[in-house]
Every structure is written in structure tokens, then in C-alpha cells.
Design brief:
This protein is of the alpha/beta class. It folds into 2 domains: 2-131, Rossmann fold, CATH 3.40.50; 168-362, Reverse transcriptase/Diguanylate cyclase domain (Alpha-Beta Plaits), CATH 3.30.70.270. It has 14 helices and 12 strands. The protein has helices at residues 11-19, 31-39, 49-52, 57-63, 80-87, 101-134, 136-158, 168-192, 229-236, 238-251, 281-297, 326-342, 351-354, 356-362, and strands spanning 2-5, 23-24, 43-48, 68-73, 90-94, 219-226, 263-268, 271-277, 300-301, 307-308, 312-318, 348-350. Helix 2 (31-39) packs parallel to helix 4 and helix 9 (229-236) packs across helix 10. The longest helix is centred in the first third of the chain and has 34 residues, at 101-134.
């Protein structure tokens, strides 16, 4: 914003304006110079009555087109309405012997600056909006760009940038949706059975392979951890560690390994989660072992071109209708994962198998 003042005869006021960032442009060299300021809608001009005497009619006309603060001696107070009507200026009355002059003047100027800037922003908004409405082609293009940016923002908010997998928040949302779907399917099956059928749907995990109850109303969680990942970072560097994480993100999305209905994401650090819909724990262990072997077969190279490989440990658990939240399912998969790590790593552990007593206690 341009802040200027034309020669102020009161030296104390002139000093105050300089401290507030105003530029002394007096004397105005030409009518053209004054016209330039008039075209800048964010210009605030301060001038006193004495300086007005030296302005040409053209300069005075230009001055009327911009926000201007006219300093008027207090004795001219009765002429205020005439001055405002004639010049279109904001007026500030002062007395040389008033100690509160500087403080009041500073507040007055700041108020004017805020008002000028607000008016300028509103004018810009109106002008820009009108252009958008008139030019429908531009409006449609802008709409497409906004939608594209919104889609990118949505992707950024849901996806881990390094592995290109879903982030933790998106995973937890998917778990809640899958839980509601599973409970709804269980209810549908129960409603379709004869009234005297007392089938125990809380024990779906014990059904024989291939039965519908082995899938409908079930889903499983796979918790995956890269073994000794801290050593990978310490020995080969964090950049190499990032390459390992990125490669795992590629492997876990390999065609045919998981279904399109399965949800894969990075839970945090070197831990990953796969949600397998309509799948019990033992069936989920099949792709888990395939993924474990695929990761083990990958050869990585550090910055010195030295080869190395990494293994993964996986814990698998199955959702039970009696569980109050998906946190319980994730906790069970995590327990199975730590069992696998404590018993040698590089293996898949199913919660029902490694904690059979707890599993029986959980089944109502």
C-alpha cells in the first residue's frame, strides 16, 4: 500500500508521518505524477490546508479520487461540512498545544488504513467474481482445477507419501466400516434362519473350510513388522531404510497377492496393516506367508553396493462379533505379531493358534 504525504508545515506532524512509514512526495513535480497516485486504489494521502494552496486544479482533482486525510486547524471546525463536501477528504482537527495529538492521530490513521485496505479487498473480490461469472469458460476451468486440487488434498490426507499406502487414520476408518458391514451380514444370516435354528455365529472361525459362514460376517487383521529395521537404518542409513519401506509398499500391492476389497496401509514406522474382508484368520495366513516369502527374496543394496535382505513377521487375528471395538482386533493381531518376533521372527502367527486359551475364553 502506498502511504504518502504532501508537504506538512507542522514539523512535529511531519516527523510522526515519517515514523509511520509515509513518504514525503512534496512538491509534486507534475500533474502526471499526481495522476499516478490517483490510479492506485490503495494510496492514502495526508495533506494540510497550507499545502492545498500549492496544488494545481488538476492535482487537486486527482487528490479527490483517492482516500485523503486533510489536517485542519481546530479553529476551522465550523467549516467542517463545507470542507468535506468540497474536497471529499477525511478531516482531522488539531491544536498545536494538545499533548494527545500524536496518539489520537496515529489511531485515526490506522483506522483509515484498515478501512482503505478493506474497501480495496472488497472491490477486488467483486471485480474478480464478475470476471468469473462473465467468462463461463474460465469459470468451468477453474472449477475443474479446484476439484483436481481437492482430490489431491484428499489423497495427501489419506495416503502415506513414502509407501503410497493408506495412512493410520484411513485404516481406522476402514476398520469401522468393515465392522459395521460384518455385523450387518451376521444379522441378515440370523434373520434368514428358521426360528428353531440355534446356530452359534460367534464360532465362525471353527467352521470347515469353504462354508459360507467362513466368509460372511468375518474379517481379519494382519499386522506386519519389518524385522530388525532399526539395524537397517543404523548400518545402511535412513535413506536406504526408506527404500526398504518403499519397496515393501510396492510388494504388498503386487497383483494377485491381495484382493481389491482388501485394505492395506502403513500403521506407523515399520509396521503395516492389511484388513481382509470376508476372511477368517486361517485363510488370511495364506497370503501372509506369500508376502513374507516375497519380501525375503528381495535383494537390497546399500550405498556401498553391498547386498542385504530383510524379513518380516506377521500377526493375524480375526474379528469376533462380541468385540466392542476394532481396537481389540488390532491389539490381538499385535499380540500375535510380538509372539512371532519373540519366537524367531520371519514367520506368520495366528492369534487363535498361539493363544488358544484366550481365544476360547473370548468366545461366548
Amino acid at each position: 500500500m502506498s502511504k504518502i504525504f504532501v508537504k506538512i508545515h507542522d514539523q512535529e506532524l511531519s516527523r510522526v508521518f515519517s515514523e509511520l512509514g509515509f513518504q514525503d512526495v512534496s512538491p509534486l513535480q507534475s500533474d502526471d505524477q499526481c495522476s499516478l497516485y490517483a490510479k492506485d486504489h490503495e494510496t492514502l494521502v495526508i495533506v494540510d490546508e497550507a499545502a492545498l494552496q500549492g496544488l494545481s486544479p488538476a492535482q487537486l482533482s486527482c487528490l479527490k479520487e483517492v482516500p485523503a486525510l486533510l489536517l485542519v486547524p481546530a479553529e476551522n471546525f465550523p467549516h467542517r461540512e463545507a470542507l468535506e463536501k468540497e474536497l471529499g477528504c477525511f478531516l482531522f482537527f488539531y491544536k498545536n498545544d494538545n499533548p494527545a495529538l500524536v496518539a489520537n492521530l496515529q489511531l485515526h490513521i490506522q483506522s483509515l488504513l484498515n478501512e482503505v485496505q478493506a474497501v480495496h479487498r472488497v472491490n477486488d473480490y467483486i471485480i474478480d467474481s464478475f470476471k468469473d461469472i462473465v467468462d463461463s469458460q474460465l469459470l468451468r476451468k477453474q472449477k475443474e482445477e479446484i476439484e483436481k486440487l481437492n482430490a489431491q488434498l484428499e489423497h495427501i490426507s489419506r495416503v502415506d507419501f513414502l509407501t503410497n499406502l493408506l495412512n493410520r487414520r484411513s485404516l481406522l476408518e476402514a476398520f469401522e466400516m468393515e465392522k459395521r458391514r460384518a455385523l450387518r451380514n451376521i444379522w441378515r444370516i440370523e434373520q434368514s434362519l428358521p426360528a428353531d435354528d440355534q446356530s452359534d455365529f460367534s464360532a465362525f472361525q471353527h467352521q470347515a473350510k469353504g462354508r459360507i459362514t467362513e466368509h460372511i460376517g468375518n474379517f481379519s487383521c494382519m499386522m506386519i513388522d519389518i524385522d530388525h529395521f532399526k539395524q537397517v537404518n543404523d548400518q545402511h542409513g535412513h535413506l536406504v531404510g526408506d527404500l526398504v519401506l518403499k519397496k515393501f509398499g510396492e510388494l504388498v500391492r503386487s497383483p494377485g497377492l491381495f484382493r481389491d476389497t482388501d485394505t492395506i496401509g502403513r500403521f506407523g514406522g515399520e509396521e503395516f496393516v492389511v484388513l481382509l474382508s470376508e476372511t477368517n484368520a486361517h485363510n488370511a495366513a495364506v497370503p501372509a506367508n506369500r508376502l513374507r516369502q516375497m519380501m525375503k527374496d528381495v535383494v537390497f543394496y546399500d550405498e556401498a553396493k553391498c547386498p542385504f535382505s530383510v524379513s518380516i513377521s506377521i500377526g493375524v487375528a480375526q474379528f469376533l462379533p462380541s468385540e466392542s471395538s476394532c481396537d481389540e482386533l488390532i491389539h490381538k493381531a499385535d499380540q500375535a505379531l510380538y509372539w512371532a518376533k519373540e519366537h524367531g521372527r520371519d514367520q506368520v502367527a495366528v492369534y487363535d493358534d498361539v493363544f488358544p486359551e484366550q481365544t476360547l475364553a473370548e468366545v461366548p
